[in-house]
Structures are given as structure tokens and as C-alpha cells.
Automatic annotation (TrEMBL):
It comes from the Bacteria. InterPro entries: CpXC_dom. This is CpXC domain-containing protein. It comes from Seohaeicola zhoushanensis. It holds the Pfam family CpXC. Residues 10-144 form the CpXC domain.
């Protein structure tokens, strides 16, 4: 079931209190329209009843799509620096809902679910894009790391991230985006053969693979933030 609850937020423009329906969980098997809204950037967009300004709530919900094996704790972008804590909390929720500590029926569903944590709207949207293209998210993150080495100019920094935007048979397109404001900067495309090459070189990427998958936040940005989990 998808759950929404009434909540009060302040309009970022006029500061007046708005009572809006914030999402707590998305069940995309039953509500494919909600998945579509995440993909077209309209999900949780609100219009202020007082001044008419459009603004977007931060993501803070669990996304479930059993059919695709997707379970995502979609978190606000500003919480990314505390990702280890957030990962642990998300895994606690997953364990009770679909993991080891879940009732038998839920546990049976859970064995086909891949738990993930994302921060910001571009992060959760990217996981759905990866699913749509039939790609593996761990390999996509390795590909980004490879691109960091190859690109002449790398604007990666706090609040700016590299995200997969789409793709086809022969190329994948990426763009630098703002984690919070979602503004998109330069985009470029990459030969899909590079993805296949990385997918075929498991041994060469083993060490990075271990880092990327040491928790449900499967994102190369974790390699740039602090010491990571103790080895
Ligand atoms: Zn307003």
C-alpha cells in the first residue's frame, strides 16, 4: 500500500504554512503512476495555496516494487554525509519488513528484493532508470569511477554528482546534477561497450566492488566521503 499523510510545511517563498500530503511509502506494483511521477520529476511537487509558488518536498519514503526486486529507502540529499548511520537504520527497517526478522510470507518476498538507500531526487530516479535500462547499479557506479579517471573536467564535489540519465543499445548518457536543487549541468554520453568491459572484469574491480556493496548505499560518492566502514 502507498501511504501519504497530511503534514504542515512552510512555503519557501512566502513562508505561510501549507497542509500537504507527504508520502511515507510508495508501492509501485499497485501505483505505477507514482513511479512515472518520480521519473518525470513531478512527484511531491506542491503549489503554495497562498502565493502560487511551486516547490518540491524532500524525498523521505520507502519505495517498493516487488516485480522488479526494488526496495529503496529514498532519503533527503542533505543526509548523505551521514550515510553509514542511514544505511544501518535502513537495513534495520528492511530486516523487520522483508529480511531475517520478517514474518515468513514477507521474508519469501524479501529474498528477491535488493535493499538500497538513495539521497536526493536524482539518486532515487537513477535507480529506476538503471532498472528501466536493464543495467546493474554496482556496475554503473564502477563505470562512473572509470569516467572520473578519463574525463578532462570533473565537477564532482559536495552537492554535485554524476548521474545516469538514460541510454540505448550503443550509448549511455550521464549528467552532472545538483543533489538538492536537481539543476542539471553538462551532459555527455558514453559508449555502452565500456559498461560491458567493466562488467566482464570482476577480478580487476573486486576491491572497489567490496566498498560499493558494504551497505545499501550503492553509490561511488561513498568512496569520497570519510573513511567508510572499518575494514
Ligand atoms: Zn507561498
Amino acid at each position: 500500500m502507498s501511504l501519504f499523510s497530511q503534514m504542515n510545511v512552510l512555503c519557501p517563498n512566502c513562508g505561510k504554512t501549507q497542509n500537504i500530503a507527504g508520502v511515507g511509502s510508495v508501492n509501485a506494483d499497485r501505483r505505477p503512476d507514482l513511479r512515472a511521477a518520480i521519473m518525470d520529476d513531478s512527484f511531491q511537487m506542491m503549489i503554495c495555496g497562498d502565493c502560487g509558488t511551486a516547490f518540491r518536498l524532500e524525498p523521505l519514503f520507502n519505495y517498493l516494487e516487488v516485480d522488479k526486486g526494488l526496495w529503496i529507502a529514498a532519503m533527503p540529499g542533505r543526509e548523505m554525509p551521514e550515510y553509514i548511520e542511514v544505511e544501518d537504520r535502513a537495513m534495520g527497517v528492511f530486516e523487520i519488513s522483508y529480511g531475517e526478522r520478517a514474518p515468513a510470507a514477507a521474508k519469501a518476498i524479501g529474498k528477491d528484493l535488493k535493499p538500497r538507500v538513495t539521497f536526493g531526487w536524482p539518486g532515487v530516479k537513477e535507480k529506476l532508470t538503471i532498472d528501466e535500462l536493464g543495467l546493474d547499479d554496482v556496475i554503473v557506479e564502477k563505470l562512473k569511477l572509470e569516467l572520473m579517471r578519463r574525463l578532462p573536467e570533473v565537477p564532482l564535489g559536495p552537492g554535485t554528482e554524476l548521474r545516469l540519465m538514460g541510454g540505448g543499445e550503443s550509448a549511455l548518457s550521464f549528467a552532472w546534477v545538483q543533489t538538492v536543487g536537481e539543476a542539471q549541468e553538462q551532459g555527455f554520453s558514453v559508449d555502452r561497450a565500456l559498461y560491458d568491459e567493466i562488467a566482464g572484469n570482476e577480478a580487476g574491480w573486486a576491491k572497489i566492488h567490496a566498498r560499493l556493496t558494504d551497505g545499501p548505499f550503492v553509490d561511488m560518492q561513498k568512496l569520497y566521503m570519510g573513511e567508510g566502514r572499518a575494514a
